[in-house]
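Q: Sequence in, structure out?
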Amino acid sequence: MKSILLFCCLLTTSFVYAQSSADEKAVLDVEKQRFDAQVTKNYAVLEKVLADDLIYNHSNGNQDTKQSYIQSIKDGKQSYDAIEAQEQKVRLYGNTAVVNGICQVKATNNGQSINTRLRYMDVYVRKGAQWQLVAWQSLRLAN
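A: Exactly. Output:
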């Protein structure tokens, strides 16, 4: 009886770990898709991975919604040349994922060139099978 109970506990632990690893990978995949979509101006991907109630806090203190953020890219106010993730750590809490990371961003913001490292935290929520970004907060690091 003890052997069966131990086997069930190990099997459950293995399944939970495998699911967590799969979810962490899925979140990081969506994060990469989002960064790529920001650079390539792929609005279909941005519409899919940004939640309708997104709050996007930029490192300069400005705040956007999903609609205003996508519009700023369409209007050319915000233009990304490259976004390179340098560090990323995902923590899962049920259907919510918190990502802490550092990325290098080359962009133009209202005509001003930017080449900076950002420390960021973002929050994804799984809606059905899709992870969507609901919050972004970043700050500039010394280069």
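The helical segments are 2-40, 43-49, 66-74.
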